[in-house]
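hey team, just a heads up i'm posting the complex here instead of the shared drive bc the drive is being weird again. everything in one block, sequence lines first with there labels, then the predicted structure for the whole assembly after. its two chains so it's a bit long, scroll down
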Amino acid sequence: MTPPGPDPGQGTEREPEPDDTTPPPTRRRPGGRTARIRTQVLDAVLAELGEHGFDGLTTDAVAARAGVHRTTVYRRWGDVGGLLADVLDAASDDDWQPPDTGSLEGDLAALNQEIQTALTAQPPIVTALIAASFRSEKAAHAQQRLWEGRYARCEIVVSRAVRRGELPPHTDARRLLIAATAPVYHHLVLLRTPPDPQLPGHAARTAALAAAAGAFAEPRSVSRS
Amino acid sequence: MTPPGPDPGQGTEREPEPDDTTPPPTRRRPGGRTARIRTQVLDAVLAELGEHGFDGLTTDAVAARAGVHRTTVYRRWGDVGGLLADVLDAASDDDWQPPDTGSLEGDLAALNQEIQTALTAQPPIVTALIAASFRSEKAAHAQQRLWEGRYARCEIVVSRAVRRGELPPHTDARRLLIAATAPVYHHLVLLRTPPDPQLPGHAARTAALAAAAGAFAEPRSVSRS
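-- predicted structure starts here --
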């Protein structure tokens, strides 16, 4: 269950298929052969990325590992950037929901904990995907779409807090969520400080205190109230 | 005047010297020939990075642009990672100080504005250096050192606020500074959202409100008070 960071591993368990000329096995995945090949190829991208990083990632190695023809990969994904973009788009296609702990600070702390876990996981798939987004425009746009989708899903954390009376009605959910999560990304992705077990909770508490002090009140709400 | 983000352009104005076998000109820079060659080479790195990005950066192109022998560059910097690391180390070697506006929120807003300006400048040197830190271990460590130095210099913003009575004495300066600046980096470097003129001020106000609510009080201060 990964949050604004992607969770590309979910729902992509690998099925053996040595070559895409092989007849489909009896037990088929939903979506049939095309979907099955996509799963194999994207799993292979993740495995190659985890083992070799972006610099070791090639469409040929992915095709070989997935057991599909090179031309299948070239035709459908084009290049490494196209493969990474599809990995990120596939990660969005899940039923992930933000934590529901009963309080704003609790939800934000649990969310930050998920982000910290994803960003410190081994092999470092999530950080490798973020790093790849500095190399490929296609991957960068897919990473943007993934984050946008994750933050949009997280807005329910704020609307629940509003319903509970923890926050004023016109609270800028996105600004609050960015304030809560940005320090975790900043430490682990940019500053590259060692993981601090207190960081997820601290950043959550900071955002919750700022929210209670009106830091995310929308200007409209001021004029309307 | 760039803040936790580097300002590699400062103090590296280029002097013409077509080849390092040329006798030194009459007006010499402090530090002599070695320092002059370093300036020329690091300027060339910045110019090449700004024009071609990391992927177009080669030691040969840097040597040619700087007008020095290739062997001089190889011997002293080794590779592109070594060149980038030295650019970042040179950026630390300045007299930059954080803004002093008379209030915590004002200082943080001015600091964030400097960061936003650096991260949206054209050519995008600062973001290219951050991107390069995902490609080269040497550059990554130098970027870490630069940020560490910048955040350390910024701690005076917090100690001034403590002296003015804006903050309790035992305030975790680093956590406050990270909370204030992280949203700007998160938006512009990772989420890649279009620059929002309100972002620097919003993030500053959020951190200042959280600070006033005790978000960055150190546990020691609680037990001591």
